[in-house]
Amino acid sequence: MSRLQPWHSLSIDERQALFKRVFPDHDHVVEVNDIVFTLMNSRITEWQSKFAMAALNVLEAHFLKAGMAEPEVRGAWCRLQLGTNVAALKAPFLWRTWNDGKKKGCFQGELILKTFGVVHIPVLQAVPFALRDEEGNADLRPSGALILAALAVERALNIWVSGSRIILSGQPGYFSADNWGDKIVVSHGVAKSSKKVANMFARAQKLSCESWIAILDAARAHHHRHKVVQDKKAIVIESASDAAMTESDGEW
């Protein structure tokens, strides 16, 4: 999924090929709504949702680190990052450096790389070596995962654009194909096709090998730092729990 355009719906043949690749010794035939079909949908949705959660966490951590306590400051910064036209890549958050439009490093914005690193690097590391063939093939770069990270960051910035954390309730608030995928939009009686995601995905696929090395190296570094922080938190929680148990034992 990481190599496909975001929100791509796997066909039965694609699902069968994927199942056979992961479980070559099993002869199960994938059918619509069977257990394998349903489990695949669940895992894909879970993976996509992780981008949305991670992007919000990354953005809110940035607020704290940058000392952005006032809603007005947070909202103004989010509006600045969203720029004038995300679909046309005229948004600072998409780039490593912006410099009033003299941009460099497409899809290498810090928020994007942190989100991509936190969510997708663990996925890459979990893939068995036997399934990692042809890693150098340009067609196998995780362009889809990178654009999902960019879309998740765009969503997070919009959630905070007022200066407060506002997530629409129900389906309108979901990070989903209906809300963040390409669609047909009717304006003044005229149907127009939105191709923002397709265009962003195409741009990601055209990134140079050097750009992808920079993206993956930065994402791995962010993932490593995130893991170190999470491990430290786990140790603190475990120590506190052990201390509480010791005090409880003493009361008996």
Describe the structure.
The protein is mainly alpha-helical. It has 8 helices and 4 strands; from the N terminus they run αααββαααββαα. It has a two-stranded antiparallel ribbon. Strands 3-4 form a two-stranded antiparallel sheet. α4 crosses α8 and α5 crosses α7.
Which descriptors apply to this entry?
single chain, 252 residues, mainly alpha, two-stranded antiparallel ribbon, two-stranded antiparallel sheet, 8 helices
Oligomer: single chain
Secondary-structure element sequence? HHHEEHHHEEHH
Taking all Cα atoms into account, the compactness measure Rg is 21 Å
Biggest sheet, spatial arrangement of strands: 1-2
The end-to-end span amounts to 54 Å
Shape: globular
Percent in helix:
55-70%
Question: Brief description of this entry?
Answer:
The chain is mainly α and about 250 residues long.
Write the layout of secondary structure elements.
Layout: H1 12-22, H2 35-65, H3 71-82, E1 95-97, E2 104-106, H4 110-126, H5 143-159, H6 177-180, E3 184-187, E4 190-193, H7 196-205, H8 209-251
